[in-house]
Specification:
The chain has 658 residues and is mainly alpha-helical. It contains 30 helices and 5 strands. The protein has helices at 8-15, 19-36, 62-75, 77-86, 94-112, 122-149, 151-154, 158-190, 194-201, 211-214, 236-245, 247-277, 282-293, 296-310, 312-327, 329-332, 335-338, 343-383, 388-414, 445-452, 458-463, 466-475, 481-500, 510-520, 526-530, 541-574, 580-589, 593-612, 620-629, 637-657; strands at 417-420, 426-428, 432-436, 439-443, 478-480. The chain has a 3-stranded antiparallel β-sheet. Strands 3-4 form a two-stranded antiparallel ribbon. Helix 15 (312-327) runs antiparallel to helix 23 (481-500). It starts with 7 loop residues before the first helix and ends with a helix.
């Protein structure tokens, strides 16, 4: 067998292949539907929408069509997986499929973020986005299925698969860190809308080209078609049958679908839960998400420790329980429960829930790839039938369908529901274009709900400035009912998955998987498999520790490296002679320099704030203490958040004057 990943550095680079497409897919899931229909975003979130309060699609029709397109994405996984499993060319099986998908995948993604009908033609935009999303989902699926399908043959044994899965979790963690914690800061700091940022990030799509240079297959290597590992080719019907006959895989699949139903609903609604439900800003959102993602490396390390001692089933069940508990913090920390003047309580609930939820995040990234690759690889060695991509396809088709139902249909419909705390009445409301006295203006969904409930009239809203309208929205006793429901739906899914997990085996090591498959198919030769070097191989602890260290460095430090660059650029616009590049380098690479710098900057900004009538938060000694006590390579996210908040206040005051 020719080993594609014959060097340790290749394992890391290979795992990075899916970073770009996954990052852009996560960003699409997190921001796209709220950007084109910002019904649940609340006030003060203009940069996360294409245009303030403007709905670009048909709000009653789009969720249904978008859910169908997501379900279509899952269904086509089956034939696409069979193509990549059975393709035989002089370039190999997996590489041609990846190559063909790259350009149309990038093009279709860009077109989704470019609704040609503008604000006025919702019907055209709905059709346009659905068509291009179908193309994007199809090409993304083909490329990623080919990549995932190669895991069983590029990895020689379970320790290598575990390392690659760990590296994959590493890059997934970074993706989510950037999308959910840094993007809101980047948008407000650079003052660009989310669609513009999508185009800036588009080149990342081409990280999927990495396997073209690493996978050793095809005519040149005699693998897998010629003299290398020869696997029996099977029909698509038999491949589907073997996949869904595998009870071991099905037990995992049922649990993963429960997890995915809740997780996808949470991921698409996270921005709205924080910005709309809790009434927080983009900077405050970054703080909450930092609490959720920064501890992931430590949690993943502890997860592996617990897994080794108690088994993977028990470890995963604790993750489901932790996430069910954590998600409820979004309800108890919402303005519906605590009101609008309890920021400290919201911070405690939100940050505490984030830390608890971080116990589950890393495992949610790692488990689907590790378990699926392990089962398919062991089955191939036992039966000599290689249809590994079909397992990933079966996993994808089921999770795509539940994702379409939860995130693209249910959430997109319920986010237009609003409830009056005074009367308990629930109504459906969307943004409306109204013409009064020859003047046209757009009402936001929450304003439309308040009008229908008789709390305010069109004429009063029309006379208000944008700042006054945002202040009014925050004070209205009207709340998004969908955001109240989401935490309870997600928690219920996690608890259901926890109980269904009792049907899973204690572990998914190669020897246990082989024994389980033997009970399903008595004809396989288990004794022959025991001679394979991958049977009962011990996990290499040093490699797992390396993954955790790397995760800790980037998931913690990435906030400081990128965030501070934008922050220092903003400081330069207010303080003459401020050398942002020099100070950025010093703060990043020299411990505790940030404490001195932030105290100095605070003093100067305070003087500017007094001149402009803006209250600057904190004091000099607070910045010094934070800079000394809580450095993260060596920047402190709390310190950065406080300074970013002050900078934003100055920008807002200047915009009002202008």
């Amino acid at each position: 067998m020719i080993k594609s990943l014959d060097k340790k550095w290749k394992e890391f680079i290979f795992a990075a292949s899916g970073f770009g497409p996954n990052f852009l897919m996560v960003m699409m899931g997190a921001y796209f539907t709220d950007a084109i229909n910002p019904a649940a975003l609340g006030a003060g979130s203009d940069y996360q929408a294409f245009a303030t309060g403007a709905c670009y699609i048909l709000p009653a029709v789009f969720p249904i069509l978008y859910a169908i397109s997501k379900a279509f994405d899952g269904i086509i996984d089956i034939p696409f997986a069979h193509i990549t499993d059975t393709l035989s060319t002089k370039w190999g099986r997996r590489r041609p499929a990846i190559l063909v998908c790259l350009i149309p995948m990038a093009l279709s993604y860009a077109m989704c973020w470019l609704p040609i009908g503008g604000v006025d033609n919702q019907t055209l935009n709905t059709v346009w986005i659905i068509v291009w999303s179908l193309i994007f989902f199809a090409t993304y699926t083909m490329g990623m299925i080919a990549f995932y399908g190669s895991l069983s043959t590029t990895c020689a044994d379970e320790p290598q698969r575990l390392r690659v899965s760990g590296y994959k979790a590493f890059f997934d963690t970074i993706s989510y860190c950037i999308v959910y914690a840094l993007v809101p800061v980047i948008l407000s700091g650079a003052r660009i809308h989310i669609d513009k940022f999508a185009f800036i990030a588009l080149p990342l799509m081409f990280t999927l080209a990495i396997p073209l240079f690493i996978i050793k297959e095809g005519e040149k290597y005699g693998y897998p078609e010629n003299d290398g590992l020869i696997s029996e080719k099977i029909s698509i019907k038999e491949s589907i049958y073997l996949t869904f006959k595998n009870k071991l895989f099905l037990r995992w699949l049922v649990v993963n679908c429960c997890t995915y139903f809740g997780l996808q609903m949470f991921l698409v609604s996270m921005n709205s839960l924080i910005l709309g439900g809790m009434g927080m800003s983009g900077t405050e959102m970054a703080i909450l998400n930092t609490c959720a993602f920064a501890p992931v490396p430590i949690m993943l390390y502890l997860f592996n420790k617990l897994k080794a001692k108690k088994g993977i089933r028990f470890a995963y069940q604790t993750c489901l329980a932790a996430f069910a508990f954590a998600i409820l913090s979004f309800f108890f920390g919402s303005t519906f429960v605590v009101g609008i003047d309890n920021k400290m309580l919201q911070y405690i609930l939100g940050c505490g829930g984030g830390v608890v939820g971080s116990w589950a995040i890393g495992s949610f990234f790692m488990m689907p790839y590790h378990i699926t690759a392990q089962i398919s690889s062991v089955e191939e060695k036992l039966t000599h039938k290689n249809h590994s991509a079909m397992y990933f396809a079966a996993n994808a088709v089921c999770t795509s369908i539940v994702s379409a139902i939860s995130g693209s249909l249910i959430y997109e419909l319920i986010k237009n529901l609003f409830i009056s705390k005074e009367t308990g009445k629930i109504i459906w409301a969307t943004s409306e274009t109204v013409r009064i006295n020859g003047v046209e203006f757009i009402t936001k969904p929450i304003e439309s709900a308040a009008i229908e409930l008789g709390m305010i009239d069109y004429g009063k809203i029309m006379l208000l400035t944008e700042e006054a309208r945002e202040a009014l929205i925050k004070e209205l006793p009207v709340y998004n009912f969908g955001l109240i429901l989401v935490p309870f739906i997600v928690a219920a899914c996690c608890i259901l998955g926890l109980f269904l997990a009792f049907k899973m085996p204690r572990d998914f090591t190669a020897d246990l998987v082989a024994k389980e498959l033997k009970t399903l198919d008595p004809t396989v030769d288990l004794e022959e498999f025991k001679k394979d070097e991958s049977y009962n191989v011990k996990e290499e602890k040093s490699e797992i520790i390396f993954v955790q260290i790397g995760l800790w460095v980037l998931s913690g430090g990435i906030f400081g490296f990128i965030w501070s660059a934008y922050l220092f650029k903003s400081i330069k616009e207010h303080i003459k002679g401020f050398k942002n590049v020099l100070w950025w380098a010093l703060c990043v690479f020299v411990p505790f320099v940030s404490a001195f710098l932030m105290a100095k900057v605070y003093t100067e900004l305070k003087v500017m704030g007094e001149q402009k009538g803006v209250k600057i938060t904190g004091n000099k000694w607070l910045y010094i203490v934070l800079g000394i006590l809580f450095p993260i390579l060596p920047l402190n996210v709390v310190l950065l958040a406080l300074m970013q908040k002050n900078i934003n206040k100055l920008f807002e005051s200047e915009e009002k004057v202008a």
